[in-house]
Amino acid sequence: MAIAGHTNNYTTAALAFTLAVVSASAAVSLYRWRRRGEDLECRIKELEKSLGSTMEKSASERRGRVKAQQALREALAQSESQDLHNTIYPMRPIGTIRSCFSTRNGTPRQPLLVSLARACLNFDPALVPPASLEGLGEYSHCWIIYVFHLNTDIEKLWRKPSQSKLKAKVRVPRLNGERKGVFATRSPHRPCPIGLTVAKVEEIQKDKVLLSGVDLVDGTPVLDIKPYLPYSDSIQEATVPDWVKEDCLLAVASVSFSDTFCSSITSCWKLIEKNSLYSSADEFKSLITQVLSWDIRSMSQRNKPQDTSDADSIVYHLVLEGLDVSYMIDNERKILVQDVSLPNNLEDVAGT
Amino acid sequence: MAIAGHTNNYTTAALAFTLAVVSASAAVSLYRWRRRGEDLECRIKELEKSLGSTMEKSASERRGRVKAQQALREALAQSESQDLHNTIYPMRPIGTIRSCFSTRNGTPRQPLLVSLARACLNFDPALVPPASLEGLGEYSHCWIIYVFHLNTDIEKLWRKPSQSKLKAKVRVPRLNGERKGVFATRSPHRPCPIGLTVAKVEEIQKDKVLLSGVDLVDGTPVLDIKPYLPYSDSIQEATVPDWVKEDCLLAVASVSFSDTFCSSITSCWKLIEKNSLYSSADEFKSLITQVLSWDIRSMSQRNKPQDTSDADSIVYHLVLEGLDVSYMIDNERKILVQDVSLPNNLEDVAGT
To answer: What UniProt keywords are attached to this protein's entry (chains A, B) (predicted)?
Structure first.
């Protein structure tokens, strides 16, 4: 039994040892596995977080890409519609007119009618090097192809042509407002608002041309100028409809100046003479006479006097060289120039 | 001892049991933890894979967004530079010329020189309703403002103006190639490639105008037409430099036709008469005579005969109404029209 007891004791001790070893190793393994599990869980949480934020980022990039691509498609479609079948030509003006006519009102309806109507064509130096003007001074006259930039419908016509309603017929002043097809007239309101006029070439300078007899309003963008060639441009046998024939329908009887005008002009002239196209107040006065020699009032002005109770006392305005010239016209078509002043606001007088 | 032996036995059994339990539970726990670890590892692998592909996707979306935004910026910058300071006007032609002159070569250098030079202006119905032409037929002549669309530099000039090199001076045929400022000429190679010409108004139809005396090449885009007004457009006193004065420098002595031509024209005419601007082969022959009455060869053709060994035998080509007309010119400026045929390739004869 002692041996058995010893054997038992040995067995117990071995078992206890084994138990301890097993328990310890199990505890260590468990600890390791649990630790590893915790690490893995940590890593999973990190990964899940990364994945979440990356997915979010990817979605945001996708939204950005889709948005940018949509905008690009739109931009391309727009520029494509502008270039549709190569049928739209982007025209860059070669220069701008500085004219004695500050506003449309008072600007002659034809060239060469007002010989003192002066203008200066200032060239864009990037498009017009001085050498390109060599020889132009040898011609007496030149054509000017320009843009009717003051047309109220011009922005729409060029930016959104589909929304722009073109008038097929226009009212003709010579016909007392009767309508004619726009291509039978020189009306500025035409599908392609390009103007054509002729002017006298007075002097060529480095980056400008001085002109006279113009019917161009200040600020007009010029697309091209060409020499006037009598052998191709002057057609003796050309005929026009009766209603177009030159007549004196619009000529006035006389133009005279009030004392008020004569005292005002001296002080006004001092304010503008430095930048004027004219050399003296007298020359400027001659310009006024020439401009007013034709009834320059619009159809509506002639037909609808603002104050019907006393039509004779209506005061009309004309802006020349930036000065507001006021005048009256009586029933015998005699004009009295009343006053001249620096306008408070050009816009205010432009339409009156 | 028996008790102790029993106690020992109990202890051993308890220990063995505990060991078995501990071992089993450790094995189970270990199995579970190992299994969990494996699951977690699997999940991590999945997550890592997802993260990898999502990051790749995000990077690709980012590349797409950046690319689209760059393209958008470029497109916007381009359309902005086109609208720079509102100084570029998008011009849409009102119609296109169908002319008897198939190519630039042979097209007269001035209007009205060749009275049989016919053309038809076909209007864009979206821009030109028939009513807009009402009254145009009462005028004998009209101005045509058009685009020099065959200029070889036109695409560059309009698409990339900054890269387009404008020539300030051009060689003038009348001056045997001497150079003059481009604005002292009617050269098509000008900063704004707009042409101005006059034509006789023959007939107004619903959506077209028949014209004669034109110097316009087939396919010319037309921006505007305006009635010719003698009281403003015909300037009697206009003067030009000596070198421009009308002269007979370019007139030829005579134009005659070979037997080959006379037999060819009958069969050729049948091919074109249906769509021709002319009513008979004889009328077409008169057109050829009129066109060739002026030496239409270019400066380089006149100065550099292709075959210097026998300058008299050089054959020149002219394309009218789509037919290739070949001719020779001798030292006495007498022209012999040799043959007429349907060209194999318009391009081939256009430049010769």
So the answer is: S-adenosyl-L-methionine
Number of C-beta neighbours around residue A184 at 10 A: 27
Which pLDDT does position A74 carry in this prediction? 75
- CA geometry: angle B254, B256, B262, nearest 5 deg: 165
Q: Are A291 and A117 within 8 A, CB to CB?
A: yes
Query: In 3-state terms, what secondary structure has residue B22?
Result: helix
Q: Could you give the CA distance from residue B138 to residue B135 in angstroms, rounded to a whole number?
A: 6
Which DSSP string corresponds to A97-137?
EEESB-SSTT--SSTTSSTT-EEEEEE-TTT--GGGGTTGG
- Residue B90 — φ and ψ, nearest 5°? -80, 110
- Beta carbons of A107 and A216 less than 8 angstroms apart: yes
Enumerate residue ranges in chain B where pLDDT < 50: 82-85, 346-352
CB–CB of A184 and B158 under 8 A?
A: no
Tokens 């003698």, residue located: B230
Contacts with B250 from chain A: Cβ below 8 Å = none
Between CA B103 and CA A124 the distance in angstroms is 33
Considering only CB atoms, which chain A residues are within 8 Å of B131? 168-169, 181
Query: Residue A247: how many CB atoms within 10 A of its CB?
Result: 11
Give the residue among A271, A195, A205, A221 at the shortest CA–CA distance from A99: A221
On whether the CB atoms of residues A15 and B16 are closer than 8 A, the answer is: yes
pLDDT digit string (tens) for B50-99? 888 888 888 888 888 888 877 877 777 665 554 444 578 888 999 999 99
Residue A88, SS3? coil
Integer angstrom CA distances of residue B35 from A22, A45, A47, A241, B39: 20, 19, 20, 105, 6
Q: Could you tell me where the beta strands, DSSP code E, fall in chain A?
A: 89-91, 95-99, 118-123, 141-147, 169-172, 178-181, 194-204, 208-212, 221-227, 254-257, 316-320, 323-329, 334-341
Question: For residue A350, is pLDDT > 60?
Answer: no
> What ipTM did this prediction achieve?
0.74
Whole-number pLDDT of residue A212: 97
CA of B137: which chain A residue's CA is closest? A184
**Number of residues that make up chain B:** 352
> CB distance A232–B71 less than 8 Å?
no
How many residue contacts between A and B have a Cβ separation below 8 Å?
Answer: 389
Angle at A305 between CA A301 and CA A307, to 5 degrees: 145
Write down how long chain A is. 352
